[in-house]
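hiii, so i know i said id send this last week but things got crazy w the move. better late than never?? heres the sequnce for the chain we talked about at the cafe, plus the structure i predicted for it. fair warning i was half asleep when i ran it
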Amino acid sequence: MSGTDPALTTVIIGAGFAGIGTAIRLLQNGIDDFVILERDVRPGGTWRDNTYPGAACDIPSRLYSYSFAPNAGWSHTYSGSDEILAYIDRMIDDHDLDKHIRYSHLVTGLRFAETDGTWQVQVADREPIIARAVVVASGPLSTPGYPEIPGLEEFTGHRMHSAAWDHDYDFAGKKVGVIGTGASAVQLIPELVRAGAEVTVYQRTPGWVLPRLNRRISRPVRRVYRTLPLTQSISRGLWYLGHESVALGAVWNTPFTRVIEGVAKLNLRAQVDDPWMRRQLTPDFRAGCKRLLMTSDYYPSLQAENCALVTWPIVDITAQGVRTVEGVERRFDCLVFATGFEVSKQGTPIPITGRDGRVLADEWARGAYAYKSFAVSGYPNLYFTFGPNSGPGHNSALVYMEAQIDAIVTAISTIRARGLKQLDVHRPAQDAYNAVIQRRLRATTWNSGCRSWYLTDDGFNATMYPGFASQYVGQMRGVDFSRDFRAVAGDRLPECAGESVNVRS
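okay and structure toks below
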């Protein structure tokens, strides 16, 4: 659909978990005039791109699915990327979503037209698409991030990122340098060691590591989940409550934080015999300040004969390898960057122009913000999934995402049912919400002094939500569109005022 065609109700940007979940909920609410714009040639988002050996979710499978699209077939406690991607494909098939997806559609900008209350969605090498509402569901973990190391482009050997894996490369007998020791690195390093590579791991900062007990879910159990869905719901609820309790030590610095650290230290002592290596692998920050790492085979891999740990800071990358501050250059056949993603904590992933010509990248230049993470004043009918300050530090991202989707779908349903040109959050409501969020963040472990991708360079936290998942879900259910939003009438209906529209449970 182009700019000359009638406006769609909704354009969804991204065919990952968030985009597919939004589409399902739109259909379940009787809205089918939408498209999903996907830059790639297939769906899946993060799980399409992250196919490195050992890629898996560090949240239990039972929590890593939508309540409105349950999956009784998870094979393990923690599922691998292939199984997660298959779940996304199944949701698309079950709801016949493929007809709504436009592949190879790279969105290059959004512009709001106040005269008719529509968004112009600019697409590379294609005609613009016009829509009443836009959902930015591209997610924060979509673009591979590389470290700012001098000489990055000088290396003449093979180079790859964990989010752009080269499955044709044979690691056996190769000298491989791995830069990064975060969530992706601790999964892929054991696989490289097992593949017979000579692995050198460059660690800038150690993380708190907890054991991951990944057990197979038996066929009889899966059969019970399929035939008695309530049993799966109960199991999911118990896992949810268990992870909620982790917030007491991972979100805030409490006595429970020492419990988490104690378990991590016992795990380190049980798996690493060498006192010097244990010292190198012990963090100097509170548990939760950076993401907790879930793995039971990372420490054993570091002690393998074909693996070495380097903690000297990197000076530069040379044509043949990596040079550290003590003056040693180590040469490699391949460099693997397990360095995460370019997370947009400042600015926007695409240019967005709202009411009165305002530019969201300018407003977010010092750090992103939104009303309850999903809407920004001055940008009517525009919604974000996994937006500012909606990141979980202890529970499943899909719990948060599902709550956002329900609020977004309620907003879009309201726009459509009432023929509104604009549904725009009031700036005072937005400012009041963010003042509370930033005040609460000051008491969290994320803002306790350690450096992480959660913070901007000047220490602003635009990423995490300072509370329990249940609190976040509760605030999203309590969105009041009549109180906190400004409604501008279209041609069909008068402006709504004073009537409460609340998100459904």
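btw Residues 152-208+252-337 form a domain with the FAD/NAD(P)-binding domain fold (CATH 3.50.50.60). thought thatd interest u
miss u guys!!
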